[in-house]
Design the sequence.
């Protein structure tokens, strides 16, 4: 992986930052994308920073082109963008539901669409759908649906991309202590046992990126 070029979307989040850190430790050239320029500047890693709102398809293209320019190409794309909301379906507003799908689902689709023409044979694209995409839960139905849609998208995209020699990995880590639950769009998180540490989850994901035989990362792959 040393010397390859990677775009990390959602780089200021707990898991995005951990994945970027792990990639950097393996000699990967980083392009870090997120909405908040100040938080991007606070990441203590070398790499190009791109402050964009990836809910805009044009921003997805801009982030990809920045990574190609900075890294001299693009070998890895990791989408760690995500938001969460808690509450029964009849308690959530339509606006919140739309935001869940716009951020969790459509960013995955938009970023993949922008990246595919710039990825060459042997490249890898990773989307994080999470364990909720394997088994949805009451009080998280809308959130879980937005992540299950990512998993379904990845399943089909992987078959399309295979003809070009590009791997698509759907990563479904169990609950991880990223702090996302404390920044929910709506509602309060249910009481949950302690989650996994982001650094450990990041190692599993980056190991998978470096192993051409890995084409899926179910929750069981994280040893929880």
Sequence:
């Amino acid at each position: 992986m040393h010397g390859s070029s990677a775009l990390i979307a959602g780089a200021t989040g707990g898991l995005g930052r951990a994945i970027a850190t792990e990639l950097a430790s393996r000699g990967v050239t980083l392009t870090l994308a997120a909405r908040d320029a100040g938080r991007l500047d606070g990441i203590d890693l070398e790499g190009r920073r791109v402050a964009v709102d990836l809910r805009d398809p044009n921003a997805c293209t801009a982030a990809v082109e920045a990574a190609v320019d900075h890294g001299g190409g693009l070998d890895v794309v990791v989408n760690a963008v995500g938001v969460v909301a808690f509450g029964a379906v009849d308690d959530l507003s339509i606006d919140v539901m739309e935001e869940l799908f716009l951020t969790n689902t459509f960013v995955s689709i938009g970023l993949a669409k922008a990246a595919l023409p710039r990825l060459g044979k042997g490249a890898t694209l990773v989307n994080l759908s999470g364990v909720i995409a394997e088994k949805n839960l009451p009080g998280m139905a809308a959130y879980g649906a937005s992540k299950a849609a990512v998993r379904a998208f990845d399943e089909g995209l992987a078959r399309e991309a295979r003809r070009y020699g590009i791997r698509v990995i759907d990563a479904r880590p169990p609950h991880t202590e990223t702090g996302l639950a404390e920044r929910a769009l709506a509602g309060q998180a249910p009481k949950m046992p302690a989650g996994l540490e982001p650094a450990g989850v990041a190692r599993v994901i980056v190991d998978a990126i470096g192993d051409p035989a890995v084409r899926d990362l179910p929750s069981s792959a994280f040893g929880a």
In short: Residues 33 and 50 are 5 Å apart (CA to CA).
